[in-house]
Protein 1
Amino acid sequence: MPAPTLYRKRIIPEECVLLKDDKLLYQDEDMLITGWHTLKPRKDLHHGYSCYFLKNGYKVSKFYREDDSLLYWYCDIVEYDFQAETNTYIVTDLLADVIIYPDGFVKVVDIDELVTALNQKLISEETLKKSLLSLSSLLNCIYSGNFDKLQAPIEQVLRS
């Protein structure tokens, strides 16, 4: 199966970027796993791996510093649009994110952007609900001690 084309679409700021340098490491009907380097150089974040959970509404990424030390796990709430005729995924960031630090501290961020996007009519009420339900599902997984199940696909690919 040829590697799909991946786009990252943002609502705030509005952009759609081809992830041309991302390397597909694994693919099945439920997930995609990629390895990547930052699109724009940053002092803290250098590279990482992302697991796109295609049926769950989130993407779980392992972020690394340049020295290969773990920065944190970053979870995006997303929706996926697959265009079969071109084997293309457009992954839209639905704004809310969860950061899990190496010490286990969990931080939910960008909830305010959901309100801004709704007020500016950048998203529908239905999209807002979808984002919040996916966020709730992700947080339930984390708080019940099952985040390791979402980390496992990336860790397995890194071991192989």
Protein 2
Amino acid sequence: MKKDNKALNLLSQLDILVACIALTILIVCTFVGVPVRYIPFIRPFTWLEEVQSACLVWIVFGAAGAAFRTGSHVAIEMIVERLPVAIQKVFQIFIALVVAVVIGFLFYQSLGFIQMFLKSGRATSMLKIPYSLIYTICPISFILQIVSFITTTIRDWNKIGVEQKMEGLD
């Protein structure tokens, strides 16, 4: 049973792992590229910008699902937390629906975006990396985001009003 938990934990942290690997590649490329510009008789690595741009895309979309899990997305909760518990739950449902619709729309649009790159065969100019490969992280990220959002919303649903009751005991 513990092996299943480790596998499930690894799967749930896959987005962070992807973002960390992309960040590591970005940092290494940047640190290697800067001094090479100033070494005589060595031509600068002109392909670094393509790798760095791709890494930025993978970092942003890779870490987005983790931001849902940790509650790191921007949220203004001050007003909602002061409302009665029943109204807070209504707001929670409304927010969940809006977020799900937006993520679903972005998922759908990302598929069209990738199809466009596949049809055109567009690739980076130096390394010839297909843009469809670079942006493949987008629909994957949106799936992970919605899964993270749903699990976080379910977890937080039971916490609504609990903090207020605890504050009343103080």
